[in-house]
Design brief:
Blueprint: E1 2-8, H1 14-27, E2 32-36, H2 42-47, E3 56-59, E4 62-66, H3 73-91, H4 95-101, H5 107-121, E5 127-131, H6 135-154, H7 156-170, H8 179-199, E6 204-210, H9 214-229, E7 234-242, H10 249-269, E8 274-278, H11 287-298, E9 313-318, E10 321-327, E11 336-341, E12 344-349, E13 352-357, H12 360-363, E14 365-373, E15 376-383, H13 385-391
Parallel strand pairs: 1-5, 1-6, 2-4, 2-5, 6-7, 7-8
Antiparallel strand pairs: 3-4, 9-10, 10-15, 11-12, 12-13, 14-15
Helix pairs in contact: 1-11, 5-8, 6-8, 9-10
This protein binds adenosine-5'-triphosphate and magnesium ion.
Length: 392
Amino acid sequence: MRVLLFTGKGGVGKTTTAAATAARAAAQGRKTLVLSTDPAHSLGDALGVELTGEPVEIADGLVAMQVDAQRAFERSWHDVQDYLRSVLERAGVDALQAEELTVLPGAEEVLALLELRKQAGSGRYDLIVVDCAPTGETLRLLALPEALGWYVEKVFPAHRRAMRVVRPLLSRVAAVPEDGVFEAVERLHAELSEVRALLTAPSTSVRLVLTPEAVVIAEARRTLTSLALYGYRVDGLVANRVVPLSDDPWMAGWVTAQRAQLDSIRVDAAPLPVLESPYAPGEPVGLEALLSFADVLYGSADPTEVTCTEELLQVARDSDGFLLSLALPLARIEDLELARSGDDLVVTLGGHRRLLSLPAALRRCSVAGARLVEDRLVVRFEPDPAQWRAHV
Ligand SMILES: Nc1ncnc2c1ncn2[C@@H]1O[C@H](COP(=O)(O)OP(=O)(O)OP(=O)(O)O)[C@@H](O)[C@H]1O
Ligand SMILES: [Mg+2]
């Protein structure tokens, strides 16, 4: 099963492109689900149908749904989230760990991820197209499974043990969580691990939608880097609302300005393709308009083809130790921070942070250096007897 996620800055055409891609794949005979994680109900608007929280077939082989964020889960997640925060505050957890919690997003995003897992597990679809919220929220959404996983593995067990001892004392003075909260977090962790596996599988990729404007393109560049940081594969860009050639001086001005932006993003994104979609004379709403949108965008290409096979994270061995490399397109060395925290390598870049759990062999090494080589961060690890003792 293939999964395609569409993201990009607000208003650039994510929903339209996602819906058009799904419509085309379904018309080509693939059982397709298009699912929106955006709380705004615009997927239904683009398709010209009313959507609900349940999948509905809107054309042959095309099913659509809008994740319903108002379900009961929302409440219970807020409880868990508030609890986790208060625990960290009271426990005086170090700054790095406490900060990790701030990436925990709201209920809608968690719910959307869990719904995606459920639908993927149904075995009913060849393709699931996800219409994501604007970039910032999507990144928080995509960082969630790993961030929460880290928390549950590292902080939670110790806290749970401590709770067993202090609960009888604490319960006299403060509200303490019941075991149910721990179970809920552990269950959520297991489910989100499955989501993470689904989202980072080779058959899953992200398409970045943009319009050829300087501000939008600047954000798209940063998003390319951030998505790679979190371990997500981007397989193409969609430049939407490209102004067609014209003799009109006002339009011609836009054409020139957009061309310059398109040329620059093509260079930066290479070897990823940048597909183009023209500024239509009206809103592409309804199946027919979406199918024409997809025809122009993809031409004769198959929109579901897997084109990107690069390993985002690699570990290689050489005579001095190991080289861990992480794809980070367009990253600048001055924006990067690296730290070692126990068995994790902490990579921070422009407000985004990933805690990479090191493979066993690397835990016994210390970091001997790091540099950026052709869009990859390469970190050298050398065996360190002091670390061996720590791991016996
Ligand atoms: N190529 C195009 N030509 C003309 N109108 C377009 C084109 N692409 C999208 N639109 C229109 O632009 C508006 C925004 O598009 P869309 O809802 O797909 O963007 P979005 O990125 O999903 O926005 P949001 O960030 O709010 O979710 C819609 O009214 C849509 O019909
Ligand atoms: Mg949208």
